[in-house]
Design brief:
There is one protein chain. The chain is built from ten helices and no strands. The protein is mostly helical. The chain has one domain. α3 runs parallel beside α10.
Amino acid sequence: MWQWVAPEQVGGLPWWPVALVIAILVLFNLLFQRVAPTNQHLLWSIGGTFGLLAIGLLDGNSWTDMGLGWSYLFWGFMWALASIALVTVGYVVTAAFRRGRDALHDERVSSLSGPRLMFNALVEVPFGTVLFEEIAFRAVLFAMLARRFGVVPAIIISAILFGLWHILASIGSHEQSAALGSVVGTGKRAAILAVVLSVVTTTIAGVVFALLRIVSGSVIAPMGLHWATNGLGYFFSWSIIRARARRDRR
């Protein structure tokens, strides 16, 4: 269960495959956030995932290097289930307090119907967000970086790039979250602070995800934690908003 599974550093590998993957991620970030319609994100995500895996294999990474080795799947799933359980407990405790419920309130889910909520949480989040991002940052990119620069630089660089990945998605986020808006305020300064906070928090998350991938030997583990924070966040936020709406109608 406790192990350290990461690619061994190899000297003399070219740098351009890493640059190619980063360039592809920049293009996909623009595609997801500014170009492709929302209803096409799932298809682009799945297609991009297979494309990145192909690049990783052509670069010489094994399935185990990328956290996809069969021998580590069991512990990957065990770590994933433990992460989901831990996040669930965290959300339940947070939702028990008024300030916690305010922090979980996200207007982006307020208009979702029950079926749409289930689709977002159980299909779009795991296959449209988590799958692509974990394969990109914790499987392919991490393996390529670790083989060239070592494990610690790979953790740091992949986490920073993961944080920067969220810049476009975080623009205007303070207007959707009352808790975030109360922290950063309003106006241009608030918008900048919201982006900075998003980059910092997702960079830290990137470090945690990478460590989870290393100690489990499988990218399945960070996938579980990643889905739990996002997918369960949908459920709890939606439930809180609906409960408040019912209370206000009484």
